[in-house]
Amino acid sequence: MLNPVTDTDGAPFWEYAARGELRVQACGDCHEPRFPPRPCCPRCQSFASEWRLTSGRGRIWSYVVPHPPLLPDYAEQAPYNVVVVELEDCPRIRLAGNLVAHAGAPLNSLDPHSPRIGARVHVVFGDGGLPQWVPA
Question: Rounded to a whole number, what is the largest CA-CA distance in the chain?
């Protein structure tokens, strides 16, 4: 498994995820959600920010099955899917991850071709707080 590379702006995302919470950064002034986290709001240029708890529900916006896997550590789990999920309560935010059978399941726990655009999913958290997605 890859460990996330954290920076000052993104570290809270991973801290919340390790506690089983999917939160996104939002502007403290205009309340516009934003991802990836960054110091300044792209809408109003404010430096105020807050971390908003999401429902963890979304829909598959896009997906791919890597052939061949680009990272050697994942080759033994191939084939697997990578999905892009549009969050239900923050529709301009899309997060990448894997569609799996249950929290902590291997990447190949579902047929890699099972994702469908528009399918409803919800977040679960694997090892180290890595967000994963399961069918709703």
Answer: 46
- Tell me if 95 sits within 8 A of 87, measured CB to CB: yes
Rounded to whole angstroms, the Cα distance separating 73 from 13 reads: 24
Residue pair 56/122 in contact by the 8 Å Cβ criterion: yes
The answer for 104, left when phi > 0, alpha when psi is -120 to 50, beta otherwise, is left
- What was the pLDDT predicted at 60? 98
| Stated pTM of the model | 0.91
User: Could you say which residues of the chain have pLDDT below 70?
Assistant: 1-3, 69
Sheet with 23-27: list strands edge to edge.
Answer: 33-34, 23-27, 49-53
The pLDDT, as a whole number, for residue 89 is 96
Domains present along the chain, CATH in parentheses: 11-135 (2.40.50.840)
Q: According to the model, what pLDDT value does residue 69 have? A: 66
Burial of residue 50 (number of CB atoms within 10 Å: 0-12, 13-18, 19+): middle
- Name the one residue in this structure whose structure tokens are 């707080």: 129
Residue 93, amino acid:
I
Element (H, E) at 120: strand 120-125
